[in-house]
Amino acid sequence: MTRENRPAWAVGGLVAVLIIAAVLVVLKTGSGGKGSIELHISEAGSRVFFENKEKTTTSVDSQTFTARNLRSKNYSLIVAKDGFWPWVKNIDIKNSAAVTLSSWSLPKIVKQEEVLSDDENYSEILSQINNGILAGEGNALVSSDSNFKVWVDKNTIFAEWAGEKTETPYYFCDSGECDSRIVVLDSASNIYSLSFFKNREDVLVFANSEGVYAIEINRAGTQNFQPILRTNGETRFYTEDGATFFILQNGSLLKANL
């Protein structure tokens, strides 16, 4: 069963309806289990599938889908939207675990435009790219809420949980023990640039010899990996906000808005 909570009240005979940004859709799966999954869906208009059955279509950004009374087993989630790459996750619920997830999706065709040499910002952007230093363990990138640190070492992307130990994400923990750092990606080719994606702390953007990609830190179950630009050869980027990327590839400077 699904349900949307939309508070409403009457004032002077008129009905005012407030639609909050985080509409809650709750699925009760039956008795016997105590586990739960809380999924935050980033895009309005996304179809949510739980155990291969469509449960809802989101009406606003940042909508929440919750499945409760889950027994210990593996569950599948899919978030799909026309024109976007699907987000897929398999979750192993153990010992009445309560798991919180956040989906994300990129357009299959990312808007891009070439930045020409006569652009007033061309030289500055090019300088930022060429003089950029790839994050290493000693100069790791820190998420906006200071919970994550990420860096590259020998073409391997690492992530470290720097937040409260009691709030360590489940995917840092295996068999009841939690690691302070995990491997996000072992790249077969050279990594040249690394950044957090938009306002997310759990999704990264990197550039290597094969292109520019977004990847989630969470490797448990299915690790979602989506392309921004496929290339061949050394590729670097510069971004200030994790949403607008200036990408240098084969002498061409491109601007991509995610």
UniProtKB/TrEMBL annotation:
Name of protein: PEGA domain-containing protein
Highest taxon of source: Bacteria
Keywords: Membrane, Transmembrane, Transmembrane helix
Listed transmembrane segments: 6-27
